[in-house]
Fold this protein.
Amino acid sequence: MIELSHVGLRYDGGPEVLSDISLTIEQGSFHYLMGSSGSGKTSLMRLLHMGKLPSRGHITMFDEDVAKSSRPKRAALRNNIGVIFQDFRLLHHLSIYDNVALPLRLLDQPEKKIKSAVTEMIKWIGLGEYGHVRPPFLSGGQQQRVAIARAIITKPKILLADEPTGSLDDPMGDSIMKLFEELNKRGMALIVATHNKGTVERFPHPLLKLKAGHLV
């Protein structure tokens, strides 16, 4: 689904923060992305969800050359990619229901279809009775579940998660990982950026490691 070939990335003419990254992400795969602070994990995640374009090299997503694609085409490609940010980025003035419904509304889906999909989704993440509650009144683990629901409500082909368990204790983090593994069993590809070696040991999957901007 995604192929990076000798990709480099620099910001504002500075030194490269990623160098010669070559990587293939297959349908239904599950990878961890690890590396110390400053190794380039966040930059690589930005490339993967097209928040940044490469300074050199080529990125092909779903048979499209990202650099040569128009903005509308990239926006269409982005619909295949779900993203979970480390800080959740939930809208605190909206209920859980409306946070999860937002991506579908941006796609102009009919409200009847949205209601059915969102109701089923928040039930699946174990928050069926909390649809009317706003994020500030939820625990960190509950907010993370809402972020996952919002990221996958459009049924993307790949899910990118940046430190999804970083602020959670091990039992809550493990419950999030079990949700990820269930999504993977259903055919969704996942890339999970983490520094938690315990999580990697308890839920083993192939590991991508960055060191000073290089994939090692």
